[in-house]
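Discrete fold record:
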Amino acid sequence: MSAGLLIIRLIVGLTFMGHGAQKLFGWFGGYGLKGTGGWMESIGFKPGVLMAALAGIAELLGGLLLASGVWFTLGAALIVITMLGAIPVHIKNGYWADKGGFEYPFILIAIAVGLALIGPGGYTL
């Protein structure tokens, strides 16, 4: 069971770290704070750069905590909070991700909550 939890934690956590790095630093094809902030302003999240920074920090830190198993519940909570902010952006498109819907953030919330309820398993820092 611990090995399975480790795999889920690493994949989800490292992916979130990557999304945070896209927003904060423009890594992995991201737009950095200025570009992400401009997009966030365009969809109503103001001030955009501050919102991009908060989302990026929550994703980077939440992913790190989830992947490492250190302060695991806080990491899961940061991921849930961030994805709760993403759902209103996508909800107008329905459920399915192929139509731009909220399926993906909703599933990530379920994974983070499920992990928080189960615990990080035996393989943690």
